[in-house]
C-alpha cells in the first residue's frame, strides 16, 4: 500500500509524526497539501513562544506530502536541503501549513511551504523552501 493510500484510509494515523504532533490533513493533491496543527504548551520555547522547529517540521510535512502527490509508484524521496524564515510567533491557537511543488524534475524537486494562521487574516508566520531527491526504485 502506498503512503497516499494509507493517508486516504487512515488519515493522521498513517504517519507516526502526525499522530505525535497532532497534525491534521486538510487536503492534498496535484502538487499541493494543507495541514493544520493545534499549538500545545509542550511545544513552547523557554520564552513561551511556539518553538521554531515546530514551524519547520509542519512546513516540511506539507511540502513532502505535496511532493508525494506527484511521485510515480516507483519513486521515493529524501530531503536534500531546507531553509525556513520566521516572521511572527504564536503562543496558542491553530496553525496551518500549505505545501506546494514548484518544480519536479527526474532527480530533484523544489518545494515551498507557508505556515500561517488559518482564517481570513491568514497572517504568515514562516516560509520554507526545500529541495528533495527523487529516487527511482528498481
From TrEMBL:
Positions of the Thioesterase domain: 52-119
Stored Pfam families: 4HBT
GO MF entry, a single one: fatty acyl-CoA hydrolase activity
Gene3D superfamilies according to UniProt: Hotdog Thioesterase
Alphabetically ordered keywords of this record: Hydrolase
Keyword Hydrolase on entry: yes
Alphabetized InterPro entries for the sequence: ACOT13 (IPR039298), HotDog_dom_sf (IPR029069), PAAI_dom (IPR003736), Thioestr_dom (IPR006683)
Highest taxon of source: Archaea
CDD domains: PaaI_thioesterase
Family: Belongs to the thioesterase PaaI family.
NCBIfam families recorded: unchar_dom_1 (TIGR00369)
Protein name as it appears in the record: PaaI family thioesterase
Source organism per UniProt: Methanogenium organophilum
Lineage, broadest ranks: Archaea, Methanobacteriati, Methanobacteriota, Stenosarchaea group, Methanomicrobia
